[in-house]
Each structure stands twice: as C-alpha cells, then as structure tokens.
Specification:
494 residues; 2 strands; 3% strand
Length: 494
C-alpha cells in the first residue's frame, strides 16, 4: 500500500473504532491513538521527503500512486506530495491531535461528535494528497459536509443559522468549483483528470478566461475571499472549540491550496487575465478583516475577522505570482493555522470557565488563570508579528515578495495591505490589556480555576509549533520554495 493512503485509511479505522466504542474512555483512547499515529506518520513523511530531496530526487511529486477508479471519465485515485502538500499534512496532523485534547471533556454525545470530527479530518487529509481533480473534489466535499452538524448540534449562540449559512455558501462555491473542474477536464482534451498530466497540455486561452474565475472563486469562498467571507465569522463564533481550531487552522487552507494548485497552476493565462481583479478583492479582505476585528466585542468574532484578514493575505501573496511571495503565502498558511488554532483553543477554555466571550465582562484574568493568560499573550504576539514567532516570518516573506512586483498597481496594493500590521496590533493589544490585566470586576470569576492537564498539553504543543516555525523557518522555507518553483515557472512563461 502507498504510504500516503494511510492518511485516509487511519481515519477510516478511527471511525470504525469510534463506532464500536462503548464508553467515554474507549472513545478517548481511539482518538488519542489515531490522531497520535497520524502525527507520527506526518512527521515521518516530512523527514522522508526532505531526505529524498537531499538525495537528488527531482520529480515534481514524490510517493506517487494511481489506480483507475472510473475509466469512462478517466477518474483515478491518484496521490502524491510535494513540499507544499507535506507541510499541509503536518499542519493538519498537529491540529487534529491537539484538537482531540481540546475536546477532552466535551459533552453531550461525545462519541457522535468525534465521529463527525474524524470524518472531517478524513476529507482534509485526502484533499492534500490527491493529484486527481475529481478525487480532490470528492475529499473537498467530505471535509465540508460534517461542518453543518458539528456546528448545528454542538455549537453555541445562533448555531443553526451559522451552520446553514456556512453550508449554503460553501456548497455554492462547490458548484462553481465543479463547473470549473469540468471546464479544465474538457479544455485539456478530456483524456485525464490528473493534475500532473493536465499541466502538460495547453488549455486554450478562451477556456481559461471562462473557467479560471469559477475555480478561483470556488476555492476562494473557503479562503474567505471578499465579499464571500460572511459565512466565516458566524461559523467560527458558533463552532465548538476543536471544530473552530480545525476549521480556521486547516479547512480554510484548502481554499488557498486549491487556488494555487488548481486554478493558477493549470490556468496561468486565466490568472494573468483575472489576477488584478482578484488582487483588489484580496487587498480589501486583508484590510477589511483587520478593521472589522477592531470593533468586535466577542473574542471569537475578533479572531474570526482576524482570520479573514490573514487568509486574505494568503490569496494576496499568491496573486503577486513571485517565488518569494508564493513561499510566503504557504508560510502564512502554516503560521495562521497554528496561531489561530491556539487562539480558538484558549478562547474555548476561557469561555468554558467564565461562560462569556464578551471582552466588556472580562478583566484581571492573569491573576486567576495565569497559564491560559500567558498562552493568550503568546498567541496575540504571534498574530501581530512579533519577531521570533511564526507570524513575523510569514508576513515579512509575503510583503518582501509582493514588493518585488515593480509596477505601481502591485506596489500600491502591497502598501495598503501592510497597514493591516498596525491595525492588527491595535486590536490584539486592546484585547490583551482589557481582559488579562487590571482588577477583576466579577467576584464569581475569582473562584475559577486554571487549565487542566489536557488543556495544558494542547496549548503547549501549539506554542512549541508556533515558536519552532518562528525560530527555525529555514527548513520549512526550503521545502516549500522548491515546490513553489514549478508553479511559478508556469505562471512566468506568459
């Protein structure tokens, strides 16, 4: 069996194990064993991939395999990874593992919750290993569908409204995506759905002109592209903690990955034709998301709008179409995935104790729950780009790469996007000062306890990852930049 297929097989075995579990401890055991095995597998894959590249392996994708699935439409179960896929799999494994501990005490219907959570994880892992367009689309849908129940049943606030809004908007994006995939398939001759084979064909310019916006928009909706981002803040705010972690940390990255791997790689002429329009929209996403976060009073909404801004920065960097900016976009996906998962984990833990996310009702938490408060400070500093943490490395690479485009239009967009750094500092420092410091005004909060062992473990794992990426980004950058090169070369041939 191909090693990559284990990323799908293990979650499927986890689903079977969860279904057969008869107690809460058995459910937890299955989740810890399965998610731990996925993390070990992701680390092993990363080390093996770096080793093979170091030995001179120069294929675009490694660990490839293909089995015919539906011959009439040339649909195959085709898998393979490059540096971008490898780091995305590692990110997903870290967040699924820590999300398990963040949901350790979730009730009610714990078993059913983890069943849907694992199914969502299956779709995410399958998406990142797929090199066949139809298989990739299938796993994309598998990742989206569980969100409705995870939010609608286990969420909070206006959970039914948020779940329905999220599902309708993302399924609408999927409709555009399916149309775009069919356009690519027939435009390339209707002989294969394999990305590596399609890229060798020259899709006619008129086909690219028509179908590029459909594919980019289809994936862009999941990447919180303005003005199709409105599902994201409501979905984040209503989702349970681990679902918010996986949703913002990984699921939204499917959008940026798909835009780069499918839309821009397979239709470079379409990217040149439509790039400036989408660049304007992503610039608006970056600044609008940051400004919106400033005026929020709900901790989850603050982080949700912050995610709109940071995910907008991913698409913004990709559309600059330079090697450095594209490398920065992937680093931003990694950085944002880790730090927003840390943020949502901490917010969920604070809310579980105080039963409020309103910053006007919180104060003096540093004295009451110092571990969670210090974790929140670290997450905030990473978000605003403090050197030594992941946010600084990612954003600097994005803006340096974007400024390489010497024409006035691209540089003006870059300057506008950089203002988000200042705005981010405003809302992060404002929230940290308001909820963590000063005197606690609610006597009931003085009785609260700090993090439990399972919460501490999840938080520490994420902090180590955020600091590790910030202090030693070169190995990740080297892995990513080598895999970015073929796509950027395709775009630069125009």
């Amino acid at each position: 069996m191909n090693i990559l297929s284990l990323f799908v097989l293990i979650p499927l075995l986890m689903l079977l194990g969860l279904w057969m579990s008869r107690s809460l401890n058995q459910v937890r055991g299955v989740m810890v064993a399965g998610s731990g095995l996925l993390l070990v597998l992701a680390v092993w894959l990363t080390v093996s991939y770096i080793g093979l590249r170091g030995e001179g392996a120069d294929e675009e994708m490694l660990f490839t395999a293909s089995v015919t699935w539906f011959a009439p439409l040339h649909i195959c179960y085709s898998v393979g990874v490059d540096g971008i896929s490898v780091v995305m799999l590692l990110l997903s494994a870290v967040i699924v593992f820590t999300g398990t501990f963040a949901s350790w005490k979730l009730k009610p219907l714990t078993k059913e919750y983890f069943l849907w959570f694992t199914l969502l994880s299956t779709g995410v892992f399958g998406f990142f290993i797929s090199t066949d367009l139809f298989t990739m689309f299938m796993f994309y849908e598998v990742a989206l569908i569980p969100m409705y129940l995870l939010i609608g049943v286990w969420g909070s606030g206006r959970k039914e409204y948020s779940a329905m809004k999220l599902t309708l908007m993302l399924m609408g994006g999927s409709a555009f995506l399916l149309i775009g995939i069919l356009g690519i398939y027939y435009g390339a001759g209707g002989e294969t759905m394999n990305i590596l084979e399609i890229v060798k064909e020259r899709i006619p310019t008129e086909v690219q002109r028509i179908f590029f916006p459909a594919v980019f928009l289809g994936f862009g909706v999941l990447g919180a592209l303005f003005p199709f981002h409105t599902w994201s803040p409501d979905g984040h705010a209503s989702a349970p903690t681990a679902v918010s972690m996986l949703h913002a940390g990984v699921l939204m990255k499917l959008g940026g990955y798909g835009c780069f791997r499918v839309a821009m790689y397979l239709m470079p002429t379409g990217a040149a034709i439509w790039g400036d329009l989408f660049l304007v929209l992503t610039t608006i996403s970056v600044v609008y998301g940051a400004f919106s976060a400033v005026v929020q009073t709900d901790l989850k909404y603050i982080n949700a709008y912050s995610s709109v801004s940071h995910c907008g920065l991913v698409l913004f960097a990709l559309l600059m179409m330079t090697r450095v900016s594209a490398t920065g976009a992937i680093l931003q996906m990694l950085s944002h995935g880790l730090m927003t998962a840390l943020f949502f984990a901490l917010i969920g833990m604070i809310y579980g104790r105080t039963h409020t996310r309103d910053i006007r009702q919180l104060s003096g938490l540093m004295k009451i729950m110092p571990f969670l408060s210090v974790g929140y400070v670290i997450a905030g500093l990473a978000n605003l780009g403090l050197p030594g943490l992941s946010g600084f490395v990612a954003e600097m690479t994005v803006f340096v790469g974007s400024f390489e485009r010497a024409d006035s239009f691209h540089r003006i967009c870059t300057v506008i996007a950089t203002t988000s750094i200042v705005i981010t500092a405003v809302y992060i420092l404002r929230v940290v000062g308001r909820i963590l410091y000063g005197t606690c005004r609610n006597p009931e909060h003085l009785k609260l306890t700090d993090a439990t062992w399972d919460e501490r473990f999840a938080v520490i794992c994420l902090i180590v990852a955020v600091a590790g990426l910030g202090l030693s980004p070169w190995w990740v950058s080297n892995v990513i930049s080598a895999s970015v090169e073929p796509i950027i070369s395709q775009l630069s041939q125009l």
